[in-house]
Write a structure and sequence with these properties.
Blueprint: H1 4-13, E1 18-23, H2 24-35, H3 39-42, H4 53-63, E2 76-79, H5 81-101, E3 105-108, H6 112-128, E4 141-146, E5 149-158, E6 161-165, H7 184-195, E7 203-206, H8 208-216, E8 221-225, H9 230-238, E9 243-246, H10 257-266
Helix pairs in contact: 4-9, 5-10, 6-10, 7-8
Length: 271
Amino acid sequence: MLSTGALRAHLLAAHLAGPVATSREESLRSYRLFAARDPRVLLGLDPEGVWGQRELIALMAEKCGVSADPSHISGQDVIDPELTLTALDAFADRLAAVAQRRAPVLLGTGHPHRLLGFYAALADALSAAGCAVLTPAHGRCIDITTRFGLRTYNLAYVRGVALVREPGASCPGCEPGAHTHSPLPVRTALAAAAEAGGPMPELVIGDHGWVCGAGQLGFEAIGPADTNDPALFVGQAEGSVSVVVPLDDAVRSDYYRPLTRYVLNRACLSQ
């Protein structure tokens, strides 16, 4: 099993934690937009509390390790690797719990270029443990508002992991999927599962809108988040999101493999 010390060293060497690629300016912009209830950064969450920029900075300092100083407005953001390790343990504990019950799960990502392999390994392990890995609404069209206007995507599943693709992009060798923060894919998947009479997932694993959208609807949801994704941490603070792992969500896909090994070993799901 990968030791905690070795994983901490990897987090820092791969810039998954410590100084990360996300800039302080980018994070502060997200906090301002969240405070203004901009749907682009709410990710499907409907916060109960009043979250101003100062409250968000304080929360992100506590949960991520970013600077708590509002006057710090430039440079690289920082994630505390100890917070990442603690959250990975909690993440693994939720995987173990759902595996013990052999409960249905739903996995989805808005970062298929980076995180598809991470989630696919979890899907394989949970399936081997007896969990039904759900694939509702496969092929369903979803209209998502982007910075380029309204675009139509297709909901697809790759190795048990949901993602969205542009129509006609499902051929071999095509891009794995489109980057999105939208909660519409998970809402579509959950609605389709309900319409079919179930089963419904007891755990949703993903990022961005997959976590916030599911959590807002009352489903247990866990996943990673970067320093510019305050919605997941607010959801966790308010109780609608179960576990959030602070880390850079856009490094090379192979850099997540040690995290996969760590959480699967801790959850007793290694194959």
